[in-house]
Specification:
The complex is a heterodimer of chains A (210) and B (758). With 210 residues, chain A is an alpha+beta fold. Chain A has 4 helices and 8 strands. Chain A has helices at residues 35-46, 100-120, 149-167, 197-209; strands at 19-25, 53-59, 67-72, 75-82, 85-92, 130-139, 172-176, 186-191. By secondary structure, chain B is an alpha+beta fold. In chain B, helix 3 runs antiparallel to helix 10, helix 5 crosses helix 6 and helix 16 runs antiparallel to helix 20 (713-742). Chain B starts with 7 loop residues before the first helix and ends with a helix. The chains are: A alpha+beta (210), B alpha+beta (758). Chain A binds chain B through residues 18, 34, 37-38, 41-42, 44-45, 52, 54-66, 69, 71, 73, 76, 91, 93-94, 140-143, 180, 182-184, and chain B through 2, 47-48, 53, 55-57, 60, 62-65, 78-80, 98, 101-102, 105-106, 109-111, 123-124, 126, 132, 367-368, 370-372, 374-375, 377, 419-421, 423, 439, 449-450, 453, 456-457, 593-596. The complex binds iron/sulfur cluster (SF4). Iron/sulfur cluster binds at residues 435-437, 441, 443-444, 448, 478-480, 482-485 of chain B.
Chain lengths: 210, 758
Amino acid sequence: MIALAQQTEDYVSPGLQRFCIRFTTLASTNVDDAKFIDIFHAWIQRQALPGILIDVADYRHVPDGLGVMLVSHDANLYVAPDGNRYSLTYQRKTAQPGTLPQRISAAAAVALTACQLLEREQLLHGALKFDPQQWAFVANDRLLAPNDEATFHELRDDLALAAAGVYGSDNFHTEYVHQDPRERLTVNVRAAKPVDVRMLLENIRKQQHG
Amino acid sequence: MLADRISPALSEEIDHYERQLRLRRQGKIDEKIFAEIRLRRGVYGQRYDNGQRHDGEKTQDIPYPSGDLLKGPNTRWDAPGMQRIKIPFGALTTAQMEVLADIAEEYSDAILHLTTRQDIQLHFVSIDDTPDMHRRLAAVGITTREACGNAVRNVTGCPLAGVCRDEVFDVTPYSKATAEFLLGHRDAQDFGRKFKIAFSGCSASACGLVFMHDMGGIARTRVVDGVEKRGFELYVGGGLGAIPHQAKLFDEFLPEEHLLPTAQAIARVFARLGEKRNRARARIKFLVAKLGIDEFRRLVLKERETLQEDPKWTSWISSVNDASESPRSYPATSDPVGPAAGFTGWEKTNVYGQRQAGFATVSVTLPLGDITSRQLRQLATICRRYVKDTIRITVEQNFLLRWVHQPDLAVLHRDLSEIGLGEPGAHSIVDVTACPGTDTCKLGIASSRGLAAALRQRLAAKQLQYDETLKDLRIKVSGCFNSCGQHHLAEIGFYGVGRTINGYKVPHFRVLLGGRWNANAKAFGLSIGAVPSKRIPETVERLIDRYLRERQAHEHFSEFMARIGKKEAKAMLQDLMIVPAHDVDPSLYSDWGDARQFTIGDIGVGECAGQVVSLADFGIAAAEDEVFEAQLFLDEDASARRATGKALNAMLTAAQGLIKLQNPDIADDPEVILREFRTRFYDTELFFDPFAGSKFARLIFQAYDSRSKEPTSELARQRVEEAQLFIEAAHACHGRMLEAQRKPRPASPDAILKSAVS
Ligand code: SF4
């Protein structure tokens, strides 16, 4: 049995630590991708996100790639074109404290904070609007969480607990994404009703403090 | 189980490495020793691993959680690092591609970077993840052992070996045997510096780059007693680095059975006599230059006689003719499809007809050598469909799929396009090579990758990849003088330098012309001056436009440049070299793909500082003129003596310019300049490079001490390169002094000097 989620609150909890949270925008045009470089450098200057922010990597030259990446000690965060939308991926790298649902919800909070900063970013003139009604959870650890239904079943309760905290209700569903088994295990989480970034951040804050 | 798929020897090696990691964490191994241990596993440091980063406004401390724990001198434990993965002669299997894709996704940033030496590099890796990563690689037969450190690095070879129309014979088995024989060999463990080996199947093409390697072999055959024998034209002592050296001919024909014992003997001589203390002179090229090739050869042959016979020297030879590769037995497509958009152009630049009728090799163009994990995985699927495990990495940072059935080309192109890998232009002018530069390299001065991406976009927009006239023209960019981007070898090469202008730093690239990529890197380019980084695309366009306009029939770019001369080439770019004030064009004061101001510290140059700045600037600018004249002596008069004399003068002028900052009345007498330079800049370490230490400062003393020696043309060329490096170091030193002056005024001149070097 894989220790995907250890129900302890040790500072460094074992179990699945490498995972990604991905949010996508509504259809968006007129975004100059180069602006993300300026924006991320400014975030480093003012330490705008939690974590130890280090550098910006420009991967715009890679077709179908990762766009512009903000590298931190704890996580990578990248924004890339995704058809006529943009996706923001927050990839956790280091161990976080807490249970797996707590770790997922903490990661979602950072990702949503980044979404909110981008929505409000003057350089983008309000061109990006995220659609957090749906987000993806990607387990980035094939040894611990291979991409199969069994792992999904093992993860589902923890993911549901985390999603309930994010949405502030149980009115959502999780769906295992059937794809090339060599890819990473991916689960889509979708709320029944439209929501916005601010609302979700508020939910997580309440949950964390209450 | 992963463990079941790893050979016991590899497993033990990785366990051992993991134990060392633990011991270092507990402080039980010295940080310097640990640094060499991890480097030998390909685990590198990366930019900002000293715990500091300038954010465009100020230098910020990066509060890495492990605090003061170091993984090497001034290298924080948990700062992200780079993992280099050796791929001998660039040969990969699809299973290996999949594992590489997985580990890049899980431990790195999901980008794999192919290098100019057929390695793969992953960036932003945590050292704590490296043992697991090594195990997963070992399970598919990849070792990272000796991917870095003072060891035999990846053995490279022509990616076309075995399918090339021009090769004398397939060098693959020889590259493989050499890589396996020397990996971890006891005689190859005590070098003062790295040792790079390459093999080429012919001398006409550039695929193997033999002349820039520490040891390189070009395939040769000879008829002995009516029987054709295989062997190598063997070269030693080549290398790029700050000052390029052409390799020297060691043996016109080294029979194949002598290859490994000779390599072993060379390793032993290098380990015994090579420099160990001074890294800057520790490559074998310096030993060969010091001893002379004849004496070096004598010592190696004598050493070879003393070696104890080893069956591994020859046990592999009987199977060199066994086919190491084979095609799929029939094409993947029974119904050839019509070509997709862009097929004709792609076929022109990316397809090479193999010598085996009916088969082609296909280049997969990777911009800047980068590919995502997902693309690599999908590429593995495509490879399975069209070829067997016949995939190579090229020295131009692309993948090569060998043994593609010709009827499959159109559908293969369609499949590659679907995953964003169907771009044309492989190995053309738009396929710009770049080292990591300031993106991740600790030594980077300017953004080589940013520039390469900009050039690529601009040249491709003009469709220059299809221009037959420019077919053999390459552009290569390094982020600093160290030439990891192989700038010396390209027809148009660049390396990053900095300039201080009115108190602001401006990223520049030195422009090198005259290199020849073909002929195994037989001609190196020389600099004609430095142009601000943001103006390099215009520089390239001017050079190319003029070539296309004025070239004579069949005249190669480098021949054209030689005909018009460096003076004229420089005159063409002169206006681009003049940097307008910051207020006029601030865009020149930041680098490609980087929003930060390139300058460091607050601006505020006082009157006094302004005055001394101009004195030093004047001296260094005069030195630049002199070194350029030295080049002209080399090119136009072929006068080695005048060129070396001028190069020495250039160094003296630059040194004098700096001395004027402290002693405006410095005399013109070389002895006085050297004496003052020694006391004011060498003994105080003010001139020392933060990474290369005294390397550049010593060049002036060496040049002066050997001034009466009759120079060969090679020495003259080297002296000119050295003068250029000395001048760059003078620029850098001047920049550091200016920054020190801008800091709150220290109490005494001594304190000013100290803060400048700190
Ligand atoms: S050439 Fe310089 S900047 Fe580029 S990788 Fe080498 S050392 Fe780093």
